[in-house]
Each structure stands twice: as structure tokens, then as C-alpha cells.
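Worked example (supplementary).
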Amino acid sequence: MNVSPVWTIACNEWRRWWHARVPTLLLTGLLVLWLVATFAAHHHWHDHARTVAEVTLRSQHDWQSQPDRHPHRVSHFGDFVAKPLHPLSVIEPGIIDQSGHLVYLEAHRLNSANFNPATEATSLGRFPLMTPGMIVQWWMPLFLIMIAYATVTAEKLAGTLAYMRGNGIPARQIATGKWLALFLPFLLLLCLQALWAGLWSWQSDQAMLRLGLMLLAQLLYLAGWCGLVVAVSWWSRQLHTALLTLLLCWICMCIIFPRGLANLAQVLHPTQPRTEAEYHAEIKLKTLGDSHNPDDTHFAAFKAETLKKYGVSRTEDLPINYNGLVMQEGERLTTAVYREQQAIHDAQLAKQNALIRHWLWLSPALAMQYVQMASSGNDLAHHQAFIRQAEARRYQLIQYLNQIHTIKVSQAEDKNTRVDAAFWQNAPRQTVHLATIDVSRTTLLVSLLVLLGWIVLPCALLYKVSQRT
Amino acid sequence: MKHELKLLLKQRSMVLLVLLSLILTSLSLQNGWQNIAHIRTQILHAQQEESLRKQDYLQSHQHNSTLDAGELGYYLFHNVYHAPNDWSFIALGNRLVTPYVQRIRLLGLQGQLYDGESHHPEYVMLGSFDYAFWLVFFSPLLCIALLHDLKASEQQAHRLLFLNSLLVKPVQFWFKRVMARWLLIAIVFTLPLTAFAALHMLSPGPLLLVMAITLLYTLFWTILCTVVSLHARALNGSFNAMLLTGVWLLMCVLLPNLAQLWCHTHLPVEDGSQIALQHRQLVHGAWDLTKTEILIPFYDLYPQWRDTPPVTSRFHWKWYFAFQHMADVKLAPQVTAREQALTQRDQATQQLAYWLPGLWVQRRLEDVAQSNVTHLLAHRQQIEQFHTQLRHFVYPFLFEEKPFTKEDFQHLPIFASAKAD
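After joint prediction of all chains, the assembly is encoded as:
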């Protein structure tokens, strides 16, 4: 293809924008919006980061300053973990506000993450939060529509399109030129944003991969929009038809479909309320065996087995503390039940996710948001990974304490013993890390596929309509 | 006016637009209704289950046909419900996030209040598609679509001069034209609403209120659009559309965001996690204190039980529940401060609502639906009262070491959700 006419068309388009003023004004508006969003998102991020740091510091301090205690007391004292944040959250905070950011880890219980700021938001919180991610997802397409809905229609109406075609410029060159004119400024903006975000987060883990994926999705998304705008503009005979059609597409894809799909998933596959799930876990625990009840069949068998293993006839004769062993066994059983419950809950959410993914092609905006959320570490998969890590830490910690109970506390003096504080200070408390982006693989794949389809579709449309004229 | 409406409805794209909007309004109502219906069934289910569970508890925890009050306090959960009212479907607000059933037992309350519901967090993040959202965000767009080119379309069709020369009373003419459009917009929003209210036989009071809010809000946007598009030099339709969309963006997105930012920096709220951490410290620290260190301050609060049998054994439930409660008492100032800060934020929102029509509508509708942070705090207050009621019911059995009979069990307080008036 001869490049120069394409380039000329693109330059012409920019010149026209410059003279019309309105597009320049719109682009300035977009920049202002973006600056405000960046500022707001940074503030939001900072708030969360501070909370996470405070909680981590305070819970570390509380844990380390425990006096000599009975190990079982310590396991009930418990430990707090806060959800780690990726610096890229500053672009897309995702579910930070909704998922809760603190988990209390204690013996015989699996607590959920609690304290989500969304609960206590005022009516202002019901307005969509402005973030750089949102700007790309919602406002850039809208501004694009405003700037360029007339791009081909106006030429058609003025007769210049027929003139150009008459002069032997192929339709695909005109289309490419128009598309380039629209896309290049956005490419520049997105690259600038990525550069800025890269500088901001370059030390964090997988920063380049995450940022790369985010940028790729944003580019595909906006490229698709540019294609759609040119195609619709070419297809329309009147200016207001072009504008209305494009606005309708925008409203459906950016606002109605995402919300509608999420609602539909919730209605078709409702999650079990937390209180129900907790109750069912308790019922299940009762059938498994009660470690506090000496006549319980499971623990009677456990006792017999332990006695046999050590070759003694009474628990008092054991070289270790039998109560500690019972605690270990009890924790093993309860943990299995809670993890099963957690798996059921995850399966319910997975069902909802599957439904949304099935219809994701309806809304490339949602697909783009999924990629942005996954790459900034704020989607459901990352949250679940956090919960799993917290649970692993809980189990390890509690079993360590039970182990101490077994070997460091004599059975005869069980209730009166206090174990040296150094044991807690050296307890294993694995740091909870942000999961790798690998956990969101499925979402990423589906979303990127949808986005690929999204740029193919308008291009095909454009090709088709441009052949008509 | 009749002519204007006829003219309007002759355009196929206009009819399409109106029909689509009507459908979407109905959908938004239906969706809100579905959400609330789901909450209602879950609450009903939980209520039925609760009474069964309590009977179960009675069966399995009896010793010689009496119960241990301490065990009862520790093992028996009581449900508390955040029940929606008839009109809650209009604005889901924070009902989307808050748990509608929670379980409370006699332990310290602050450790139990803040668990989240097991919703899909991404779903909550995307937000709901309810009437409030639809009205606040889309009625302005509809107004813009219908009204942005009042003069400009005439100019484009080269009719404007002709029209101007014909008009005897131009004000009346344009007034009619604008009113016809406003009527159409109002119908789009109120017709499904009325039909919906009639279908479900809802109370007319809130209906009138919601209608009034809707009419006022659409009127506000109609006037705004009219001012812009009837301006002497407003002859470029797409410029008007862009200007109005800019205003819409400003009013419905940019300013609310800035306002929230301002609110959060000027009225900081201590993060709830700090309360959880301190609560844990207070409750678990109490095991290391002597019995008297716990009980003396407790008896200062409840002198009526000072002369009850002293705690001599290593463990006694009365001491245990006393320190659970003392943790709440010690945290009370922080909790109150936090609630006050939240209330202040809410009041600031109220003040801002006089300047931002979108916010005003959202707030008014949330008041009707009782799904604002005010209602959340009121609900927490109710839970607290219930918890107190429960404690006061169980304390005599604990402290005077009276036997807790089956008869007493039947009189245990049950959470009554304050029905909305």
C-alpha cells in the first residue's frame, strides 16, 4: 500500500480538528479528567496502602509483645493479615473497596476478609469512581465518539469523499488514514500513561508483564473503538444518526451490559449467605467429632491409636502432652471442613464468573476491565489467592502452637503452664505476598480473545461499508 | 402540544429511543425488585431456620431440663436482619454490600459487627442497575438527545428564519415544544414506575415522592438543555450536544468524585481494622489480668450484681462475659467517634446534595429505600440494642447462678427489625 495518501489523510484530519477547536477542547477536557482521576486514584491508593501498612505494623507489634502464655491462648489470640496491594492499583483499584482487606486468623475458625469501605460509603460512593482505568474504559471512547462521529459522514455530506474516491484513492487507504488519525493521539496518551505507571511501579513484582498486558488490552480496546467510529461514520447518511448509533453502542457496552451481566449472574447463581455457610460448617464439625468431648467416637479411636503407638495404657503416661495432640487432630479436622466450605463458596463464584465470561463478547469494555483488574492484582482471582495464603498461614501457625502445646507443656500442669514468649516471637508467620498474575490466567485469556475479536469486528464492518461507496 | 407530540412521534428514531428507554426503565425496576426479593427470601429462610436451630439447641444442650447460661451465651447464635422495606428496590445503595443476615452471640459485639457478606465482589464493584442509577445517569442523556438541537435543527433545515417570522408569541411556541419533550421524558420514567407500583400494590406515599423527585430532576435537565439550545447563537447542534454532555459529565461524574475526595480528606474516618485489632487485644489481654481487675469496673457499671457469689475458680462464665463486655465498653469512645465521623460525612453529602442535583436525587431515593449509610448506622444501633437486651436477659442467670429453664429459653429476646414507616 502506498503510505503517503494515508498519512496525508491523517494529517488533514488533524488539521481539521485544529481548526474546528471543539476536538482540541475535548482533548484538553480529557487530559483534565485524566489528571483529576490520577489524583483521586492516587489518594485512594494511598489510603489503602496506609491502612495495610498500619495493620501489618500493629499486628506485628501486638504479636511480638505477647507475654509468656499458654500456647492455646496464643492460638486464640490469633493473628491479623492485611491484603497486599500492587502499585498498579493506582490505575485500576478493582475490588479493593468491596472485598475487605483484613483477615483475622485464629484457632478452629476460618474468618472471611472483613471491613470493606464500600459498606460505609455515603451516596457519593454510588457514583462511579474515577480512575485512570475508568478513563480508558469509559471516557476515552466517549470523547472519541464526540470528536470523530462526523469524520466520514461529514465528508460524504460535503461531497469530498466522492471526490477523493473519484481521484483514485482506494477506500481502504481513506479508512486507514482516518483510523490512524484517531488512534495515534490515543496511542500517545496510553504510552505516556504506561510510561508513567512503569516509573511508578518498576520495582514491584512482575511490573513489566502486568503493565505490558494492561497496555496491550488498552490498545486493542481503543483501536477497536476507533475502527467502530470510522465504520459507523462511514455507514451513516446523517450526522445525528452516526452520533446516536455510537452513543447507543457506548451506553450498552460500557454501562448496561457490564452491570446487567453481573446482575444476571447474581440472580441465576446466587451465593449462599455467609451465615448459612457458617452454620453448615458448624453442623458438619459436630458430626466429625468434638475434641472437647472425651466420649466422642472419633477421639476415642484417636486416643487408642496414640496409646498403642507409644505403648502405654494411660494418656498420663505419654511422654508428650495428649491435650496438644488432640488440639492438633482437632485443628486438622476443622480445617478440612472450613476449606471444603471455602471451596464450595469459590465454586459458586466460579459459576457466576463462567456465566459472565460466556457473554463477555457483548461488552469489550468489561473484558478490558478484567484485564486491567487482573494486571493490577485487584480481581477476584487475586483476592482468592490472598485468602488461600492467609489460610495456609493460619494452619501452619496454629499447628506450630499446638506442637508447642504438645511438647513444651506438661500434661499434669497443663492449665498452669506458661510458655516462654520467645516461642511466639519465632513462630512461623509466612509473609502473605500478592499472587502472581498467573492466577487470573483464564480471565486474561478470555478477555484478550474478546478484545482481539473486538478489533476484528469493526475492521470487517469498515471494510464492508467502505466497499459500498 | 398535541401537534408537537405527533411531530415527535412521527420520527422513527424517536419512537425507537422512547421504546428502548421504557424497556430499560422497566428492567431497572425489575432488577431492583429481584435483588430485594432475593434478600427477602433469604431473610425469611433464615428466620425459619433460626427457630428450628434454637429448638435444636434446646434439645441438645439440656442438663436435667435446665441449660447452662454461660454455654448458651457462647454457643447460641441469634440472627439479626437488615430487612428491606417495600420501596427498597428503588435504590439498592449499600444493601448491595451489607450482610442482610448476621449472627450475633453474647461475646463482645465489636468483634462480630463487621464481617462482609459473601457476595461476588466484582459484582458489587460493577454496581447495580436500579432505578436510581438509571434516573440519575440516563435521564440527563435522554434530555440532551431530545432537546439539544431545538433551534439548530430548524436552522439546519433552513426553516428557522421562516419560523421566526411566523411566530406571534415565540415564547409560547418554544414553551410548548419543550414541554412536549419533557412530557415524553417524564412518561418514560414515571409510566413503568406507576405500572410497577400498581402491579405489586405498593403504598402510594413513596410513589408520589419518587415521582416528584423524578419530575423535578428531569425538569431541571430539561430547563438546562433548553437554556443551552435556545440561546441566541446556539445554531450548531453538535456543539450544543457536546457542551451538554460536558455538563453531564461534570455533574454526574467529575464533581461527585471531587466531592468525595474532598469529603474523605476533610473528614477522615479511622479505619475499622484498628477497632478490630484493639478489640482483640482487649479481649485476649483480659485473660492475663486478675479476676478483680475485670470484675470491679464491670460491677461499677452493673452494681446490682456486685454482691453475687465471687469468682473463685479458674474459669467462670460470669468473668468471661464480663471481660467480653468490658472490651466493648473500652472501645465505645472510638466506635462513637467513628460513627460520628461517618455521620459527618453523610451530613456533608447532604450539604453537597443542594449543589449537585444528581447527588440530591440519589440521596432522596436512598432515603426512600433506606439504603444509605445513615440507615446502616441505625441498623448497627439496633443490633447493639438487641445485644444489650440479650445480655440483660442472660446476666441474672449468670451472675446469680440461677438455673436457666426451658421456660426461660422461650422468653429469649428475638431481634425485631424495625419495619420501615
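Two points are worth noting when inspecting this output. Chain B has two domains: 28-129+269-411, 131-266. The CA atoms of residues 47 and 79 of chain B lie 8 Å apart.
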